[in-house]
Model the fold of this input.
Amino acid sequence: MEVGSELANLLKNNSSDNNIEKLKIQSSLLKENIKKLKVPFWSAEEAAIVEALKLPNVLHPKTPSQKNKVLFTYKTVSDNDKDHLKIGKDNNLIQFTNKENYYLKGDAAVFELGAKFYFSKSLKDTGFIQFSNPDFVKSLIIEGCGHDHTDPNHTFIIHHNEDSKVNVDNRLHLTGGGSLFSFFAYYTKNVLHSNALPLKYFSMGRQYNPVDNEEIGLFNVSQSSVISMFIATKNIEECDAILDETIEVIKNIYSNIGYPYRLSIVTAEKLHMWESLRVSIEMYSTSLKSYIEIGNISVSGDFISKRLMFNYTHEKQNKYPHIISGTILNVPMFLGCVLEQNTEFSIPQEFTVNNWCFKQ
Amino acid sequence: MHKPLEFSKITELLNLMRTDKLGNTCGNKSYYYFGALAELEEALIKYTVSTLIGKDFLLISVPDILPRNLLEGCGMTINTDRTQIYSLDPYHHGHDMYLSGTSEMSLAGLLSNSVHSAEKLPLKLAAVSRCYRAETSNVVEERGTYRVHQFTKVEMFVITKPQESDEMLEYIRNVQQELFTPLGLHMKVLDMPPHELGAPAYRKYDIEVWMPGRNSYGEISSCSNCTDYQSRRLHIKYTENNQDNYVHTLNGTACAIPRMLIALLETHQDPKGKIVIPKVLQPFINGNTFIGKNTQVPKLKLRK
Done:
């Protein structure tokens, strides 16, 4: 810049100073240097930001460090030696080929739909709004939600059969309309007014997850029918208050069905990088001899909202909503545990076809 | 005289759907239903499935990711690059992961390599599944959510003895008419000529309904008799008097959500802008009689 203004001065004074030539050369050299520097500077910036984006969310003060904190237990479990896959086969309820390919038949299929409809009704009764979401999202949503979009163990990546060149950062991913991704795809770059909050949504849909576990059965499948929840709140205080309310809602929904379950807050090392707290809905599996997660409620605060520019305005200020989300029901996990209960399998009253319609 | 509005206009006025600016986040032709429209989708599934269960269809929950040989056995041709079918990236996920375009394929797959005793036939199956279709269309008649890449569909799939398949096709068509007539849609059934049939089909009916907003008929359903095309490729047999023979396979759409919603909303809009819910669906949507404007989901506003 200095060279430029000196040059301009000299030109204005019309002097025949041979400084002019010198400065002209100097100026063009400098411009060229800046140009050359831009590229490495950009890539340095890109590298630094991408690394910074790998930093995990801050922990919620209620997240325990030593062991899971059990919040609530409904009924006690009694142990037996049942295995859901064997029961499923013996009773012609499940045909299992591999983790990507399994069928639920007859009452097991009615159970799946009935469970979803029961949850859907219960959530609508408590003020949740129903969504029906797309199954694909682009890479930026995967990355924004705190996953590695290039890692095929995180999400299924759709084959690129367009004529255009493959760009690793702009792929289509099969995640399912029951995934958190599709809710965030809706709210990416969205601006709300503060009085629109809180939002309480749910969707009934699929979830597709690559699983690399060797174990065989419904606890380890790539495709699940789920109920997914998405709540946007104004700030930490509202987020905590609505979390407590939501836990009560979930308790009522599950207790009403009648199977033993418990709710626990999981320890920090079990969290995904985007989570600050997770309440795990657990049932006991007698084949695994342990509790397994059949659903969850996650708090991510403003972590993903910031990354995907979901914001709201309050008194002319831009703020980021605090998010509570969760797969509050994973049907194959749930069905697996239900088949391993002490009693014979039958469709719970709440899920039967007769109860799919409204009665006066 | 009130001029009927198109589905996209109705859903915009009542704030029930988003299709706008989703190319960068979900891919083109994506859509979200919300509020009463998502509830109506659920009501249609409940109505359809409970009707089919009442007619002794066996409900099946199916996988959406299928191997290539199954798709080909059902009569799909898979080209190497540009194709109607989505697949998972072969480098990352292996070479044999295709997304199902219809549960006809997964239901046929369930029965592959099986032998059924004659007295157990016909076997009538039904499934609710997500369907994925890569084909795109730029024709104006297929604008909006008329042709989409992903949708929910209730499908019927039946196997019969060869001599019973003609009669079964009529039965399936009757079930479809029984399902659609109470929805108050104006319907016509077309007996499709051979050049309109896919490779596996021997005979096919299409059902078209009037879509007043679009001012045209649109296909909402079809049913086909594939005779032994699929059963020979997938080895689905029955046994009678100690003799094995190939079954006939048939399939039919019980409810394909996006076009059914277009037909319903365009047919039952009233001049004041509300949507009247057909009586048979009301018990499945909490007793509601109409759909009004949704004020609970905020109007979309995006950052520049």
Q: What stands out?
A: The mean pLDDT of chain A is 91.
